[in-house]
Description:
By secondary structure, this protein is mainly β. The chain has no helices and 7 strands.
Amino acid sequence: MTYVTLMPAFSSSVFNYTATVPMSITTTQVTPTANDSEATITVNGAVVNSGMASSAITLNAGLNTISVIVTAEDGVTTETYPVDVIREASYLVGDIGPGGGPVFYLEPSSIDNSHKKKRPHELRPFQKLAPRARTRTGHG
């Protein structure tokens, strides 16, 4: 897989895999290889030739499950290899941000900053200010 390290390493006798990628990785590709040249392979429902890369798979923030299915020459026998790819957020809600306050995360693609320089997005909550000292002025 492009930009992804499987855990555990691939073995035809292991049927569940996980991987974690940073927020900066937005797509991946799967390059499956079948032991039998007559087998058919699908990645997320699309046929992929053995040894060739799949189309780009978009990774959303959080859990993304990629399904790799190998069908034997008989057209009936199948093996399914689900891969759970977790795309991390740059900050998680509740983390402490650089200013010392909690961080509220926004998916970068949801913010239109085309008019500004590119930089990480962080929302800071309103901070309470210390109450002002009250003074009384008397009449009379």
